[in-house]
Amino acid sequence: MPAEPAVDERPAAPVPDTYRQTLARLRAAQKPAGRGAPAYPIYVNRRLGRFIAAAAFRAGLTPNQVTAISAAMTFTAILLLALVPPTFLLGVAVTALLAAGYAFDSADGQVARLRGGGSAAGEWLDHVVDAIKSSTLHGAVLITAYRFLVPADQRGWLLVPLGFMAVSAVSFSVFLLNDLLKAARSRRDTTSVIRTGSTPLRSLAGAPTDYGVLVYVFLLLGLPGPFLVVYSLLFLAHLGYLVLALPKWFRDMRSLETPA
Question: Fewer Cβ atoms within 10 A, N terminus or C terminus of the chain?
Fold first, then answer.
């Protein structure tokens, strides 16, 4: 799910007296979850991001600085994954860095709201980082699998991270395109209804397709067999979700068309 847009240049609002008051402001301004949004971003990552955002805001950090911290953590993990032989400790380090980067990714948009709103430049930067992350992470899996995990007579498995890379790129692009078209339509036609909000059942059903779940698969790096199996199952879940969702999203776009 694309992260919340950031802002950089707007002046910060007056800082509340306490950290707790800052958290209260964030809770009050929290956006509703997208329809069918997975459970991890709603119930875990958004809350972690809220604590980070409150601290970052009070420390005077801008949203783009928070985005840069997120990117540094994420791409450090990706480089470690690609370059270092897989072990249990490496898996823990990669997972911790990816999870922390994801939490900071949620925090930048929340800092933006504390500072008065988002900007096009901040949103662009946030989405560019997400686009790079969504592809290079699977590229790193491809590299480490080729170098360390997959025997020469089983190299056909390398098609899995290649496929995962393609599915991630397409999914990310379509998510953004859906949001842009719906937003453009809602500005032209005030009678348009954009359905928002999620339910626990929808959130749990979408859990296998969430980046927050993928992050924790890397705890299995020290166990090549289980890692390859679980990673493959997640790829199938992402692929199946995309194949089933594309017709539905097409119908959604058709419903936005103005009747002749």
Answer: C
Residue 34 backbone dihedrals phi, psi, to 5 degrees: -65, 155
Q: Which residues contact 29 (CB under 8 A, 6 or more apart)?
A: 113, 114
Q: What is the pLDDT of residues 74-100, one digit of tens each?
A: 999 999 999 999 999 999 999 999 999
Could you tell me the two tokens for 186?
């809602």
pTM (predicted TM-score): 0.83
At 192, the amino acid letter reads S
For the CA atoms of 171, 237, 49, 63, the dihedral, rounded to the nearest 10 degrees, stands at -20
CB contact set of 124 (below 8 Å; sequence gap of 6+) = none
Tally Cβ neighbours within 10 Å of residue 29: 10
How many C-beta atoms surround the C-beta of residue 85 within 10 A? 10
Structural domains of the chain in order of their starting residue, each with its CATH number: 19-255 (1.20.120.1760)
Say whether 143 sits in a helix, a strand or coil.
helix
254 class by beta-carbon count within 10 Å (0-12 exposed, 13-18 middle, 19+ buried): exposed
- CA-closest candidate to residue 223, choices 91, 51, 75: 91
Spatial contact of 218 and 102, defined as CB atoms under 8 Å apart: no
Measured between alpha carbons, how far is 31 from 197 in angstroms, rounded to an integer? 9
